[in-house]
Amino acid sequence: MSKGFAPEPYKIKMVENMAIMTKEERKEAIERAGYNTFLLKSDECYIDLLTDSGTNAMSDAQWAGLMLGDEAYAGSRNFYHLEKTVQELFGFKYVVPTHQGRGAENILSTLTIKPGDYVPGNMYFTTTRFHQERNGATFRDIIIDEAHNSQIDLPFKGNVDLKKLQALIDEVGAEKIPYVCLAVTVNLAGGQPVSMANIKAVSELAHKHGIKIMYDATRCIENAYFIKAREEGYADKSIKDIVKEMFSYGDGCTMSGKKDCLTNIGGFLCMNDYELYLQATATVVQFEGMPSYGGLAGRDMEAMAIGLREAVNYEYISHRVNQIRYLGEKLDAAGVPMVKPYGGHAIFLDARAFLPHLTQDDFPAQALAASIYEHSGVRTMERGIISAGRDVKTGKNHYPKLETVRLTIPRRVYTYAHLDYVADTIIELYKNKEQIKGLKWEYEPACLRFFTGRFSQK
């Protein structure tokens, strides 16, 4: 391990054996999966960096909390523990649990969007935009231009461009903008944070026009860490205090508990508007469950409450972000192209720079993810033209400027030795990148195609 990196701030007391397959076996596996890493079986993957969503290792306190699960159909004490924790840490008045983040996105979009609306946000996210478009809205990207350039290194590359937001308000009118979707951090930009100054400015502009701020709070702990590390005036503030201030400028949030709550399932929707809360409780019973469990077991809500408090611990979050930095620095030293600066949950390889002999219509990120698996047994995922999907009106492909492969680090799962293996094998593959072939569609689903689509080599 390189100097300057502290060892893991936890002890290992349980182990899970990892799959070890030959390269020929992996080649057969990725062909069976239609060159889509989502369709690989878990036991076919050696190191699984597909996602950090629900792949966390829970603590001894969380496992103990599972035994305190109150599985009452209504009024579970675990809900009240979760509610109190979220209210204390996030500051929002009302909390509605959901089975995961997209459950919260569905409720928010259903209740607030009408056909013809526009939802501005600092870069799209796949499921978020799907729910917005499904309810008749048009997504408008208002992130700063630099976020679409992998090589520009800025401390807060997830910031909103205030001129873009004002231009949209002037173009369509505030009455057609139900809320600003403010992601902290911005996943598809490379896990890039938003500064506190920018959050304040966006809040002031939106609220001046009567527009709500609804956060995608999925990785808010990581965003708070970057504010502490990079923004003047916050070095001496706790992660907990920074999180509370971040959300004080908004009106609510959607949250996937499968990330910063350090659990394997769960999510919630928050708001300060009582009328919206009443509508949300009426809607959640239709799709998720009672407002006091929202599709979750009591034990899962208990684990989320405990995990949220663990996540605001500085030792935990600094180690997590440093694991990503460690992997990034090893790859960068070998010239492997990636999004700069490193984010808080993943390294994003620049697939077009990695595979300059392929066009975007050859699906370079999908091809690279498949090749990484075949070469090393490391499962990653595509974040490019396949994830971007098609325009709902024209049916044509979206062509994002960023065509990336995401190497996502699960929380408290892998050690620096695992990351050494990941870096070494990707560096080796990079030296032989000309051998990687493009892909074409064999089966394309109607929506969210990156999950279940299948491909073949050209």
TrEMBL record:
Read off the Gene3D superfamilies from this record: Aspartate Aminotransferase, domain 1 (3.90.1150.10), Type I PLP-dependent aspartate aminotransferase-like (Major domain) (3.40.640.10)
Q: Which residues form the Aromatic amino acid beta-eliminating lyase/threonine aldolase domain?
A: 48-424
* First-tier enzyme category under EC: lyase
Q: Which CDD domains match?
A: Tnase_like (cd00617)
Q: Which cofactor does it need?
A: pyridoxal 5'-phosphate
In this UniProt entry, the residues modified to N6-(pyridoxal phosphate)lysine are K259
Catalyses which reaction(s): L-tyrosine + H2O = phenol + pyruvate + NH4(+)
Listed A to Z, the keywords are: Lyase, Pyridoxal phosphate
Give the enzyme's EC designation. Answer: 4.1.99.2
Q: Which GO terms describe its molecular function?
A: tyrosine phenol-lyase activity
GO biological process terms, semicolon-separated:
tyrosine metabolic process
The record's annotation in InterPro entries points to:
ArAA_b-elim_lyase/Thr_aldolase (IPR001597), Beta-eliminating_lyase (IPR011166), PyrdxlP-dep_Trfase (IPR015424), PyrdxlP-dep_Trfase_major (IPR015421), PyrdxlP-dep_Trfase_small (IPR015422), Tyr_phenol_ly (IPR013441)
Any Pfam family matching the protein: Beta_elim_lyase
Q: Quaternary structure per UniProt?
A: Homotetramer.
PANTHER family for the chain? BETA-ELIMINATING LYASE-LIKE PROTEIN-RELATED, TRYPTOPHANASE
The family assignment reads:
Belongs to the beta-eliminating lyase family.
Q: Which NCBIfam families match?
A: PRK13238.1, tyr_phenol_ly
Protein name according to UniProt: Tyrosine phenol-lyase
What species does this protein belong to?
Answer: Cetobacterium somerae ATCC BAA-474
Underlying gene: tpl
